[in-house]
Amino acid sequence: MAKSDDLVKYITQQVVTFIDTPRDVRQQAKAMHKEQREHWQTRWFGMLPLAARMLFDQFKIKK
């Protein structure tokens, strides 16, 4: 029973903090988070796209 009470308390706190923060602050935080996020290719494949691009660029220069 205590676990469900804790969950309700946590959800209530999150909702209240969301409502209390102004819209501008939330939008700025969302934009900042979006800028700091890695590109989707890097998140999914690591350094492989960069290595492939560098390899293809070397072949273009030689021709």
Automatic annotation (TrEMBL):
InterPro entries: YqzE (IPR025622). It comes from the Bacteria. This is YqzE family protein.
